[in-house]
Amino acid sequence: MTGMCVAMLLPILVAVVFYILIHRRSSKLETGMPGAIGYGILGFLWQELIYLMLIVILTNFVWFKNLTENSFLLSALIYGLLCAVFVALGMYWGTYLTNQKQRSLYRSATIGLGFGLGNTGWYILATYSMSLYYSFQINAGTFAKSEELKQSILNTSAASMYMDALRCILLLIIYTGVALLLGKFYLEKNRQAAWGTPILVQFFISFTNALFQQYLPGMAARILFYGILALMAAASAWMILRWLKTGEVALGSVKSGG
Questions:
Q1: Which residue, of 10, 95, 113, 124, has the fewest CB within 10 Å?
Q2: Sequence-distant contacts of 129-138: CB under 8 A, at least 24 apart
Q3: CA distance 175 to 229
Q4: Alpha carbon of residue 70 to chain centroid
Q5: Contacts of residue 51, Cβ cutoff 8 Å, sequence gap at least 6
């Protein structure tokens, strides 16, 4: 139960820290940061729902099932690309809305925080909050669900919960960096880079994860994948903190004022 609580709270605390850092830098210039968080959360939720609905529809077609079942690499490419496109749609939608009345790189970056919180809510809060509720019932002797569900809850280790929380934290930081770049390119009216950045980053994450799970043992795949996410998150955090300190967004030799 403690593991569930910690796993749910850690990503939220990280999001709060980054929100405070961005808000301190922007508070004298503008308002509307909570709204940007909301756009990011909604952007994640609707794109995730539509993506899952599309996958369900596609898997009902025989030709699609044959196409994906007969080639793992093709399947990973298709699913990775679809996931990347929908992530880009969700983040671009939020960036577009938050820049309608007043153009702002601060609110644009905050879209990524909301997007990461949406990811946390979808994959951790929704799952662990219900498991926590059932855990109280198990301890009180009032649990009335199936024995299979009970054993599943009891057999969930704290280590796996913390790993799930770590993944959400790393993705939250990555999405914030991606949203910062997306916002930069959007404000510069560089539409190709604005779309291409989230698509390339998410496709790399999805495709790499699929490859590791297919060709490496379970624990090795997870450790290597988390290592890559950690490197991406470190680069993203460096870029965000540098921008907050200097007002510049750096990507290679490209720079833009905050």
A1: 10
A2: 129/8, 131/4, 131/156, 132/1, 132/4, 132/5, 132/8, 135/1, 135/4, 136/1
A3: 11
A4: 30
A5: 82, 83, 86
Phi, psi angles (nearest 5°) of residue 206: -65, -45
Please tell me the distance from the alpha carbon of residue 25 to that of residue 215, in angstroms, as a whole number.
45
- Contact present, 80 and 210 (Cβ < 8 Å): yes
Tokens representing 237 are 């955090």
| Alpha-carbon span 185 to 176, nearest angstrom | 14
**Model pTM score:** 0.89
Q: What are the φ/ψ torsions at residue 27 (nearest 5 degrees)?
A: -60, -30
Would you say 110 and 37 are in contact if contact means Cβ atoms under 8 Å apart? yes
Asked if 5 and 51 count as a contact pair (C-beta separation under 8 A), the reply is no
21: enclosing H helix or E strand: helix 2-26
Mean pLDDT by 10 residues, the chain (258 residues): 76 91 74 87 95 90 78 90 96 94 89 94 78 68 66 70 89 96 94 95 96 89 94 95 84 44
CA dist., res. 159 & res. 77, Å (int): 31
What lies within 8 Å, CB to CB, of 120 at 6+ separation is: 11, 12, 15, 168, 172
